[in-house]
Sequence to fold (215 residues):
Amino acid sequence: MFFLFLTLAQTVHGVYVVSLYGDVHNDVDFFTKTFPWIVDNIGGDISVDYYLLGSGRYSVPQMCALEQMKRNTFLQALFLKCEAEGTSSNTCLCESGIDPQKYQHCVLTKGFYASFASNKYSQLGLDASPVIDVGYKNTVFGVDENWYLKKICTIFGDNPPRGCTEPFACNSTSEFSRKKGVASFNCNSFNDCNLPVTAITMTTNPSTTQYNSYP
Fold:
C-alpha cells in the first residue's frame, strides 16, 4: 500500500509541460535574463516544448540542440542564453555536451521543424514574441518577468514548487546579481570547440492577429 501511495504522489506531482514561442536572436532580453531566471526558480518542475521562430537557418539547429537536452531544462536555458548573447554557435553547442553526430543528423533531416513551429505559432492568433503557453488559449506575453513566472506557477494549483512562493529576486535587482542560479553563467568566456553548424532553409513568420492575454 505504501508503494502505491508513492507512485500516485509521483504522478500528481509530475513535471508540467509549457510551450515557448520566440525568436532567440530578436527576443534577446527574454532569453538572456527572463527565461534563465524562470528556469532557475522552477526548471526542475517543468518541461518546455520549444517552437522557435525566425529563420529556419538558425531555428532548426537550435531546436535540434534542444531536443538532445530534453530532460534538462537548466541546460536548455544555458544554451539559449548563450545563443542570445551572440556567442559563437559552435561554442554554445560544444559546451552543451550534445552528441555532434546526432545533432548533425537532426539538422540535415528535420528542416520541417521551422514550418512546424511557424504553424503552431499561427494557431495562437498572436503578433507578439516571446509567448509562453500554459494551456488552451492560456498565454502570457508582453509583461515583466515576474508575471511570466506567476502565470506558469498557476499550473501547479495548491502545490506550487518553492520557486513559485520564494523566487530569486528579479534580474534587475542587486540581490539577484549576488545570488545567481545555474542558468546565469557567462558563456562568452568559453573557447570555440569547432563543432560545424549546417545551414538550413529559410522560413518567415506567419501573419497573425494580435490580442492581449494577461494573468
The first strand starts at residue 16 and ends at 22. DSSP finds ten helices and four strands in the chain. The two ends are 40 Å apart (CA to CA). Residues 1-13, 172-215 have pLDDT under 50 and may be disordered.
